[in-house]
């Protein structure tokens, strides 16, 4: 029983780690996108570009294109 619980816990930690890595890549792509369109560090409406990238990537890990 302990072995099974340990395996489940270990698997969960690995899966969560993968999600964070994709999130980080998404945010980095978003920041680069805003830099490319010369909307960094603030968008034309005054919002912080990094915060906007983070918000969009929380909703979808592919908000700024494929990350693979």
TrEMBL record:
PROSITE patterns registered for this protein in UniProt: PROKAR_LIPOPROTEIN
Domain of life of the organism encoding this protein: Bacteria
Record-given protein name: Lipoprotein
Organism of provenance: Acinetobacter sichuanensis
């Amino acid at each position: 029983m302990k072995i099974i619980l340990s395996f489940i816990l270990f698997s969960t930690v690995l899966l969560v780690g993968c999600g964070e890595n994709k999130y980080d890549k998404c945010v980095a792509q978003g920041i680069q996108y805003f830099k490319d369109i010369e909307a960094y560090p603030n968008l034309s409406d005054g919002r912080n570009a990094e915060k906007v990238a983070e918000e969009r990537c929380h909703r979808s890990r592919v908000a700024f294109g494929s990350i693979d």
